[in-house]
Each structure stands twice: as C-alpha cells, then as structure tokens.
Specification:
The chain has 414 residues and is α/β, with parallel strands linked by helices. Helices cover 36% and strands 11% of the residues. The strands form three sheets. A six-stranded parallel sheet has the order 2-1-3-4-5-11, sandwiched between helices. The protein has a four-stranded parallel sheet with strand order 7-6-8-9, with helices on both faces. Strands 10-12 form a two-stranded antiparallel ribbon. The structure holds beta-D-glucopyranose (BGC).
C-alpha cells in the first residue's frame, strides 16, 4: 500500500517535506522527483517511531511518495440510502474519485451503527489507502479510527464530524450553524415576521410554533439547533413566538436517526396534548430536515389543518432540497428548505483525499469551529442557501441540481 505522511503533514507543507521526513526516521531524500526509502514505506507518518504498519510499505513508488492513483483504493462510508442526499453524496464522491483514477469501495450502512463499524473495519482490512466517512453516530467509531491511524490511513470526516477521536484528519462540511440560522429565518419569513431579505416587518404575532431537532448523536443536529434557537429566542422572549407544548430543549425536540415516522408521531402527539387534536391554531414548525418535514406535514394534514399553506397548513421549514420536498414547496405545501449543494461537498472531499494521497495537506478554511472533544479538526466549510418557491428555478433547476421535470413530478430521475 502507499505510504501516508498523515501525522507529519502539518509540518510537511511543501517546502519542509524533506526536513520532516528526516525528522521522523526516513532518509530524508523525499523530493518531488527522487524516490526514497521514506517515500516507499519505511515511514508511517511519524506517530509510531517510523515503524511500518500493516497494510503499509508494499508499494514502490516514484515521485515523492505518492503511488499512482490506479494503485489506490478509497473507502467511502455513507450512513443510509433512505435519504436521497446520501445516495447522491456517495455517487458523486465515487464518480469523481474514479475519474481521477482511484478505486472506490462505497458502502451504505442502513443507519445501523454496527453495520457501519463492520464496513469500515472491512475497508481497512482490505487495504484502503484513505477513508471518507459520514458517520451515523459521531461517537461510535473510535476503534475503527485507531485501526486506521495505525495503518497510516488518512480519515476525512464527511459532512458529520466524527467525535472523541484524535484520528480524524480533516472535515468537509457546510457552515452548519448558519444552516440552523437559515432554517429559523425561513420559518420567520413564512410567518411574516421577516421579509425575504431578512428585515423585520413589524408583525407581532403571537404565533404558535413547535420545534423539531435532528438526531442527538449527529454533531450537526446541535449546530443546526443552536443556529435556529439563537435566531428564534429573541422572538420567543418578546412574545412574538410561543411554544404551547413548552418543549424547547434539544432533548425534547430530538428525532433519533432523523426518522420521518418518529417526527410524524411526535407531531401527532403534540397536536393531541397541546392543540386539542388539531382544533387549536398552530402556525409554524421548525424542522431541520426534509424527511422530518414530510412526516410533520402528513400529521398536520391528517389532523385537518388543510392540504396547502393557503388553506391553513402551518409553515414548515426543512433541509437538503430533497426532490419530494422541492415539489411540496412548489405546490405550496412545505414552505422552504435549505439547499446544500452536495456536488460541491463531494468535490471538496475528493480534493482533500487527493491531497493526502499525494502526501500533502488539504487546505482548510476554518480551524476553530469544529472541536470534536479531543482536538479542533481542520475543516473546509461550504455555504448553503434558503429555497422558497420563488427561487426553485434559479437555484436548483438552473444549476442542474434538479430538472424541471423532477420538480414537477417530485421524483428523482437520477
Ligand atoms: C446532514 C443533513 C441531513 C441530516 C439527515 C445531517 O448530518 O448534515 O444534511 O439532513 O443529517 O440525514
């Protein structure tokens, strides 16, 4: 397998590569044109005294230590196929890496933690040269990451931060706090408290809202919640917004594994306990993911709130611009979603993994925000955008994310 300089990459930025190799026991001749023992497997990254680890050191490569792409395999672990975004993420990463010449081992884990752990174990055993992981439970992969580290395999945390481990090299994601701000903003726009440019309209309510959060074992759920609550809290304090259920903590609002049915059931329970089974006014729902939004909307429609926003359905936010929800937005059923262009995320993951495989350090644009409990993981953050009915075409169709036919049918043709 190829040699990885993962542990020294921080100090091995281009110019200091030779020095760094010398410092950790190689022979120090690692220039871009001269192969050296350090380049060909005698070094395992500097955190183990230079001892070659299992799966390391069996390839002789010219050119600064990076094996040709054709000789390398990247393991890509995605959480589930129940949400189309993860299928798209997985496929985009796979296609991009294959175009660059790498072999890709792409696995989905059915939202089952042991399945994902086994898949990653298997990737390591099969000699993966790098791993890209979107974790189901961000705290459950320490054993796998330890194994990856001792085999010199760089690990990129994809969209969801892997927590409680030293052995996460890089994180590619969106500005997740801002996603939460955008979710709350779209809810406030739908209620008429803000206009689409984010300005207050002077509307004082009071509006009844309910709050939903994602899965507590997903680090993102906390960022989305914090961004949303920081945005909504001032209006809750001033009485513009009220939460009749009183359920205002993330623990009360959480949805294990982001399950649509769980959100639908909680919405039904809330309607029974706090809204006279649907006879009392509910104006809006903060939902952090389109799948949950659809469960919530089904509960509301079944309780007689109307079929569209025009005929009384509360304003519901979302995330991911899933095609079923984009159609609902187009049809005035769901109010908004957040578009995170997963094509750009996949591209960023590919750029980062290629950097490691070429014995370089990927470029971070955030080195402060994402503390995983053990260290701050260098990150590359992308921007997201609120989608309302009136920018579906300009943002989603014109960019080729969805076709107009897909928007009209609500079904992905990909
Ligand atoms: C992702 C969201 C997604 C959610 C549920 C989060 O980690 O960032 O885009 O909606 O998981 O799949």
């Amino acid at each position: 397998m190829s040699t990885h300089l993962r542990r020294i990459t921080a100090i091995a930025a281009a110019g200091t590569l030779t020095l760094a190799l010398a410092a950790c026991g190689g022979e120090g001749a690692g220039s871009s044109s001269t192969p050296s023992p350090a380049d060909t497997g005698a070094d395992n990254g500097g955190d183990d005294g230079g001892t070659a680890a299992p799966g390391d050191g069996d390839d002789s490569t010219a050119g600064g230590g990076a094996a040709p792409a054709e000789d390398m395999t990247v393991g890509v672990a995605m959480p589930t196929q129940t949400s189309e975004r993860w299928i798209a993420d997985g496929n985009s990463v796979k296609e991009g890496l294959e175009e660059a010449g790498y072999t890709v081992d792409l696995q989905f884990a059915n939202d089952d933690i042991p399945t994902q752990s086994n898949q990653i174990d298997q990737m390591i055993t099969n000699g993966a040269d790098a791993l890209i992981i979107a974790a189901i439970d961000g705290t459950a992969l320490s054993t796998q990451l330890d194994a990856a580290a001792s085999a010199g395999i760089p690990v990129i945390s994809y969209d969801r931060l892997i927590r409680d481990s030293e052995n996460v090299d890089f994180y590619v994601t969106f500005d997740n706090y801002n996603v939460g701000v955008q979710q709350a903003t779209s809810l406030l726009v739908g209620l008429g408290v803000l206009d689409e440019s984010g300005e207050e309209t002077g509307e004082e309510g009071p509006f009844n809202i309910e709050l939903f959060a994602g899965s507590l074992d997903d680090n993102n759920a906390h960022f989305f919640w914090d961004g949303a609550m920081d945005t909504l809290q001032p209006y809750m304090d001033s009485g513009v917004l009220e939460v009749p259920s009183g359920q205002t903590t993330i623990q009360q609002a959480a949805t294990l594994r982001w399950q649509q049915e769980t959100a639908q059931r909680r919405m039904e329970d809330l309607l029974t306990s706090s809204y006279g089974g649907g006879s009392e006014q509910l104006d809006g729902v903060l939902s952090p993911y389109d799948g949950l939004s659809r469960g919530i909307i089904t509960a509301l429609q079944n309780a007689g709130y109307g079929q569209t926003i025009e005929d009384g359905l509360p304003v519901v936010s979302g995330q991911d611009a899933e095609i079923a929800s984009v159609k609902l937005i187009n049809d005035d059923v769901q109010y908004a979603t957040i578009f995170k262009d997963t094509r750009l995320l996949a591209e960023q993951a590919i750029i980062s993994v290629q950097a490691y495989l070429q014995d370089q350090e990927p470029e971070a644009n955030d080195t402060e925000t994402y503390d995983n409990g053990v260290k701050v993981v260098p990150s590359y953050l992308l921007e997201s955008e609120i989608i309302y009915k009136d920018n579906i075409v300009s943002s989603l169709v014109d960019s080729g994310y969805w076709t107009q036919d897909e928007v009209d049918s609500g079904v992905s043709g990909k």
